[in-house]
Specification:
Helix content: over 70%
Number of helices: 4
Strand content: under 5%
Protein name: DUF4190 domain-containing protein
Largest sheet: none
Structural class: mainly alpha
Keywords: Membrane, Transmembrane, Transmembrane helix
Length: 97
């Protein structure tokens, strides 16, 4: 009788869990985009940026997966924040005239 080793195909990287904070940050980024287009609310972007930075810190410390989710959330959060800042500046300069 011979013994065969069966490999499951999982690597060490895929055995690590996905960081929950990264998932929350990505979900909040989607909510921020929806809120921006339907309600004009850009405040949620502040929380997206905070959650994204916390997720990146946790991923680095714990060795978890989800870096792409956290970075994507940061891109969306900072993008919405920049758009809101430019919009507020344009509005303030147009009202001042």
């Amino acid at each position: 009788m011979s013994t065969e080793i069966v490999q499951t195909g999982q690597t060490e990287a895929s055995a690590q869990p996905i960081n929950r904070q990264a998932i929350v940050a990505a979900a909040m980024a989607v909510l921020a985009l929806v809120g921006l287009f339907f309600a004009g609310m850009a405040v949620i972007a502040v929380f997206v940026v905070g959650a994204g930075h916390v997720a990146l810190n946790q991923i680095q410390q714990r060795g978890e997966r989800g870096r792409a989710l956290a970075v994507g959330a940061l891109v969306v959060g900072y993008g919405i924040a920049a758009l809101a800042l430019v919009s507020a500046l344009i509005f303030s300069f147009s009202v001042a005239r």
